[in-house]
Amino acid sequence: MLIARIRKGEEGKVRNSYPWIFKDEIISLEGSADVVCEVNIFSSNYEFLGKGFFNPSSTRAIMVLTNQDEELGEMFFGRLLQKALLKRERLFNRPYYRLVHGEGDRLPGLIVDRYGEILAVQFRNSIMQKKREMILGLLRNLVNPKGIYERSDFEMGVEDRIERHTGLLFGEVPDSVEIEEDGIKYLVDVKNSQKTGFFFDQRDSRAFCKRITAELSLEKGLDLFSFTGGFGLNMAYSGAEAICVDKSRDDLDRGRMNAVVNRLDNRLQLVQSDVLDFLAGFEMKNYFDIVVVDPPSFVKHKRELPHGISLFRRLVERTLPLVKDGGVLGLCTCAYNIAIEHLVESIRRSTESTGITFSHLAITLQSPDHPWLVEVPESLYLKCLWGLVAKE
Fold this sequence. Notes:
Elements: E1 2-6, H1 11-15, E2 20-21, E3 26-30, E4 37-42, E5 48-54, E6 62-66, H2 74-91, E7 96-101, E8 110-115, E9 118-123, H3 126-130, H4 132-143, E10 147-152, E11 165-171, E12 177-181, E13 184-188, H5 203-215, E14 220-224, H6 230-237, E15 241-246, H7 249-261, E16 268-272, H8 275-281, E17 288-293, H9 305-319, E18 323-333, H10 340-351, E19 356-365, E20 383-391
């Protein structure tokens, strides 16, 4: 068994369930450390702190899984998966959700989305990839799926060189899976769509968009970076005419299918365009009652933060002229490094000396099937700021 001793002062975060020990926080390794293996973790003076797995190819060298001296085998992983399932079954009455959300479920690097009887999985580090067969067996016993499809085709850092892999792992997976959320049906392409097929994390934001559109009787909506039309569909469901803008033809085609299956195609227009080009070319000012801006992650590293904030400001500056006096603006980020205060600052600087004010309506975060832990600050990544736009 590999034994790792960590630097003095790092014990607290391990005791407080932070899941990672970085390579430069290790002062000694006793035993073979050439491959992914189980590790006992000790303080600098040999006080037992916990157990996990060591990954020699990553700067995040140790994944801490428990503070107890227990076996990290099938029973351990099965218990964590069962706990994740029970949490979702308490929260949702339909089996459409993220079943396992990495660090949020104490299983760093494992993502499992559930589309009824179909599962989509990602193994995001070498440790979870090594446990693939065991995890697949546990998932089959846990929810008895008809099919499991792997989507480990994400962007990954060079510090953990794992195999990119997509494909069928078990059973059969159709080209299109129908799910339902808050009365709206979505046709999901688990095999080819972005990430693992659907952005369950925006569930609460979509619900707010739907509710505010109905409560304020908003008539014209704009969904920017629309993916398959999630916000636009909710606007249309609540009575508005909506435009969805995205540069992906495939995603817009899927959005059109979603509109048809919900009988909302007469209220939803889908436009293939770069969002900034669309905003620059849209000539009708003060036209929209509600606009949602939900871009992809502009900031993957802290050093990119100034560039990301600048892009948000450009988006807000070009969006605000299209929003009616009294209209609603929703501004979202899925980047951990961009905080609510950065969204606020983007709006504040965009409205300076314009006679435009922005008053807070709500803040929505990632839905609870994407749990964030106070012990792991980076697990809170999705934030949406909603407000009313007033013009002089």
